[in-house]
Description:
There is one protein chain. Helix 2 (140-157) crosses helix 5 and helix 5 crosses helix 7 (339-350). The mean pLDDT is 92. The chain is an alpha+beta fold. It is globular. The chain has a 10-stranded antiparallel beta sheet, sandwiched between helices. Strands 1-2-15 form a 3-stranded mixed beta sheet. Strands 5-6 form a two-stranded antiparallel sheet. It has 2 domains: 20-49 and 213-350, HIT family, subunit A, CATH 3.30.428; 68-190, HIT family, subunit A. The protein has helices at residues 4-11, 140-157, 195-211, 215-226, 267-288, 325-330, 339-350, and strands at residues 21-24, 31-34, 74-79, 86-92, 107-109, 113-115, 121-126, 165-172, 184-190, 230-233, 237-240, 251-255, 293-298, 313-318, 333-335. It contains 7 helices and 15 strands.
Amino acid sequence: MPDETDRIEQSLPGAGGTKTEMRRDPTTKEWVIIARDRAKRPHEFVQKHDRPSLPDYSPTCPFCPGNESMTPPEFLSYQDQGTGRWQVRVFANKYPALSPVGSTAHHTEDGFFWVMDGVGAHEVIVETPLHNERLARMDLRDIERVLRAYRERYNALRTVAFVRAIVIFKNHGPSAGTSLAHSHSQLIATPVIPRTMRLRHAVAAEYYDKTGRCLYPDLREHECRAGRRIILETERFVVFHPFASKRPFETWIMPKTQDASFGTVPDEDLMPLAGVLQKTLQWLDHGLNNPDYNYIVYSAPVGEEDTTYFLWHLQIIPRLSAMAGFELGSGLYINPAMPEDTAQFIRDLSEK
């Protein structure tokens, strides 16, 4: 006998077709639709664009050596010990989203709308002196310098009184939001804890209260046990396409050490992290023809770096599909690729 659910299903238009699948992200409790009916094979996501070739130096690029006067003064630079030339350079964004001027006091407009000054910090991390270099093709030592700069600037800004959260991110390619071709990352420090960060921490805290364990190592261990979505596992890191991936080829890099904040990542983890980041970006670069992507370093809010219920991690989101009206209206993502299939595609690349 069919149950009530079966009867409802059979009464709907289109009943009898292949079912889609809804999966819940354990880190946010948000549901994701894995559209089996619409699912593309992984090779169908290979980008067909032809990017223009770039010179190693551009006289009009503010990020190229010799053009330092085009940027605000640097906060930090790492030099090559042999040549004395900078390899990584950090300075304030010339057109910042937030700046360290103003007040964090709230006030209301029209007696209803809350307003505060756009206080914060917005910095640029130039990853290489070469105009035509990209992170996926950089040497391990060069990537390690970039990660070290992230950590140094994170720890400098976390001491600023008004800073509540720090987001490190990279936009690669036009559809990911970059406006300058020269490879760079950014960092924004905010006077509030953004809603997405607050949600992740609330879910992690609830899980810890119920189980006495950190959610993220449990997630990592379940992914390792399943194995189907694992891309790479090393002594210190695991790389995988998560069970409830919101986007095709969404990739997480998660440490095996318990650090809630990227600011507390030990020196001995930076080079191994550079290695797994390099391999992951190379596989995406080669397999998908240098796709546009964003990556974000998720870290604990400032002041909560010692918490035991969160784990910093890095997420890479290739820009292979766009949000449409349903996703904007509902907050439910539709992923047209099975993460098990995309993980297998990347594993096959890694074995060649």
